[in-house]
Each structure stands twice: as structure tokens, then as C-alpha cells.
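Note to self: the last two entries modelled the partners one at a time, which told us nothing about the interface. This time every component goes in together.
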Amino acid sequence: MTALAALTGHYLRASFGDKFGLAFGAVQPFLYLVLFGPLFARSGVGSWEVLVPGLLVQLGLTSAGMAGFGIVFDHRFGVLERLRVTPVSRVTLLLGRVLRDTVVLLIQAVAIIAAAWALGLRAPLAGVLLALLLITVLAVGLASLSYAAALTMRQELFAPVMSTVVVPLMLLSGALLPMSLAPAWLDVVSRLTPFRYAVEGLRALFAGSYASSALAWGVVVSLAFAVVGVALGTRRFQRENA
Amino acid sequence: MIHARGLTKTFGPVEAVRGIDLDVSAGEIVGFLGPNGAGKTTTLRMLTTLLRPTSGTATVAGADLFADPAGVRRRIGYVAQGGAIAPFSPVGEELVLQARLYGLSRRRARERVTTLLAELDLPGVEERTTATMSGGQKRRLDIAMGLLHRPELLFLDEPTTGLDPHSRANLWDHVRRLRERDGLTVFLTTHYLEEADALCDRVLIIDHGRIVAAGTPDELKSGHGARTLDEVFLAVTGRELREEAAA
Ligand SMILES: Nc1ncnc2c1ncn2[C@@H]1O[C@H](COP(=O)(O)OP(=O)(O)OP(=O)(O)O)[C@@H](O)[C@H]1O
Ligand SMILES: [Mg+2]
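The predicted structure of the combined assembly is written out below.
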């Protein structure tokens, strides 16, 4: 527990020391919010309450999803190996980073929601708070998988591969346009990605429909995603590094 | 302190370590010598739980390498050949974190860092990053990292490479003092054989993944009719190269 607190605190201090990095993960969804949001809100397809949950999942992908990039340098400079010789459990070594990424994501999410509010978003406070909780779960899974990916692929490939993978995942989640508009085949493919359920769960929360099946699915899929992510991430930390 | 039997490690087609038996007693300083690529780092990484041996058994600092890796980790320190500090964060924070990972409170960790940095001739570097430090200062920081938690057994992989003669002498003095004061056991690799001769109670020479000579420096020198460890080293290593040249 001390080890987890020490690690998380250490990484958080580093993140807050790097304001540019803190803002950078949120740039893409912020641009969508400001330059695409007003269009979307007037298109008749949906309102701010439909778009913002999608942008929050996009934020998850571009922020927590890219978290693994940071470990590439720790790996290269021998920091990771130094940590792996300490008695701290491997899951703690992973979670220290993941908790930092989750806190960072929450701060970015609150900033996006606040900006959206200024533009016209209206949602129940309880729904927004629960949405932040669901995003936390999603962030744990995304960051863990991102570290697993970073420790698996060749270092120089991580950034280009991940920034490419994120695009179809985001589009298939229906983050930008609801999947109810999609042709049948696209709808089926979309249902194979976990983020579709997260987006719809978040939309249900922003709409205040707390008893909907969309929300139930969003919670279940996000939790399962987080469990799988942490399990895979821990395995990569355990593995001998070549 | 270390008992290993039949340790091997293969990387695909490369047999890096081909069956090593080791016994190191508490309080000994043992030098692990050998040419580049002989398997020194690979052996150290196996003994420090970083690399799973392909076969063999070992107890390190009283804990079984396979059954209780966390027990091994708690009692050992490891200074890697390539260093272990990233250039972008203040070294004081990295050191305090490292100490806290061994269970020290924040306050105790800070105190320990201050004392250790002074002992290693690096007072007041806490706020700096390694990007602004010389190679020798960085190397001494790596060593501080390995000593923070007062390990019983310290693995040093080429600790003095890149240090000037003063720093090297200073580091070896420090190692001797720790052995005398705390009974520290040290297992180290180096390519500076005169230093190994002066410092080590015993040396092991490894070549192509096998131990080819072992004993006290004096035993090895008299056994090979040599005046220096360099001569012993040249006599017992590189046999395959010479055989290839002869064929
Ligand atoms: N991760 C790895 N994958 C493949 N081969 C490796 C790996 N690590 C080491 N080797 C190989 O194993 C052999 C032993 O390497 P090792 O690093 O143990 O040598 P060393 O004795 O420490 O050498 P040096 O004095 O140059 O540090 C070498 O042939 C090396 O190329
Ligand atoms: Mg080596």
C-alpha cells in the first residue's frame, strides 16, 4: 500500500510538472468539441448530451490509451529493470502508473465537460459524476493495455501503431455519430468493440436514464475490460524483459 | 549467500550461460571476470530475478530464486551495467521513491538519501537531473540506488567503468568499508583486473558461458605461473578463438 501510494505520488508529481503533456492528451477531443460540436448540435442528429460522452471515450483512447509511451523511456534507461528488482509486487508496479493516468484522465475529462457546459451541454449532476466513475474504470483498462502493448512491441513502433489503432476504435465506438445511423454490417462490427458499450452507457448517464440496459451493458463491459487489461498488463510486467 | 547449481540460459540459438555452479559465503567480495559476451551480465540478471534461467537452481541471500523471488529481491541490491536513472526527473525524487519501495517512510527515505549521497561524494545533487551530471557522477548515483535499502548482498555489474582513478579508488574503499561495517557480501564484474586483484577475496573467470577458473587471486596467479591476473585471464579465456586460429 505504501509502495502504491509512493509510486502514484511520484508519477503524479512528474505529470503535474509537465503541463504541456497534461494538456496534450486532451487536445484532440477538445478540438472536436469546439470545431465539430456546434455543427453536430445543429445537425439534428443529436445534442451536446449525445456528443460529449463520445468525446470522453475519445479522450480515454488518446490520453490513457497512449500512456504506454511513457514506459518506453523508462525501459530504455533501465528504470523499469531497477523497479523490477525491488520487492514491490508486479501488479503494484503497473497500478502506480495506471492510477496516475486515471487521475490525469479525470482532470482532462472535467475540463472537457466544463468547456462543453459553456457551449450548451446540460446534464444531471448525478449522471455526470457517475459518468466520471465509469470513465475511471475504462481508464484503468486502457492504460493497462497500453503498457502491455508498449512492453510487447518494438519501442519505435508504439507511437505510430497506437495512434493508428485508436482511429478505428474511436469511429467504431460511435463516439462521433450514434451507431443507430449505421448500416447493419457496421453496427455488427461496432458491437465487437468494447468502447461502443462505454459510449452508450455514458450517454444513458448524461440523459439521466439510470435504469437502462445501455448503462448496465456499459458498466459490465467496462469492468470486464479493466480486469482483462490489468491481468494482461501485470503479465507483461512479470515477464522477463529480453 | 549465493548457491547456484547448473544455471543455464539460452536466447534462441545463443547459449549465453552453459551450466554454472557458484558458492559465495556471507561477507565475501567475489569478482566475476570474463571477456565481453562471456555471460556475466546474463548470470547476474538470473541471480537478481530479472531473467528466468533456462535450467538450474539457486538460492540467493537465503531465498529460493524460483519459489521466493520477492524474498531474494528484498535482500539484494543490483547495480546494472547500463545504469538505471532516466535523465528527466530530479535524482532526489528517484532516490526517495526507490527507498520507499523498500518500506522506508518518506522522512526516513529523505534522511537516508542525504547520508548516502554524502558518503558517495555527491552531496546536494537532489534537485538536479542526470542530464546535467558527468558520467562518473551518474555511475555513483546508480550505486547509491543499489545501496539505499542496506542490502545484505550487492551485485555490481561493471560499477567502475567510466570512472576516473580517484572515483574508482573511492568506490572500492566504500565497498570495503561496507563489508567491514555491515558485513555486506559483494558479487561484482569488472574489466579492471588489478582492481579485482586488490579488492576481491576470490575471483571466478567465465568464458563462453562456463567458469574456466576460480580461486583467490594468489592461487590463480601461482597456479598459472603468472605475475598478474591479466596473465591468468589471457591464459584461461579465448581458447575457442585460439583453436579457430590454429585450425
Ligand atoms: N536479451 C538477449 N537476447 C539475445 N542474446 C543475448 C541477450 N542478452 C545477452 N545475449 C547474448 O548472450 C551472451 C552473453 O551476454 P552478456 O551480456 O551476459 O555478456 P557479458 O559477459 O556481460 O559481456 P560484457 O563484458 O560485454 O558486458 C552474448 O553473446 C550476448 O550477445
Ligand atoms: Mg555485461
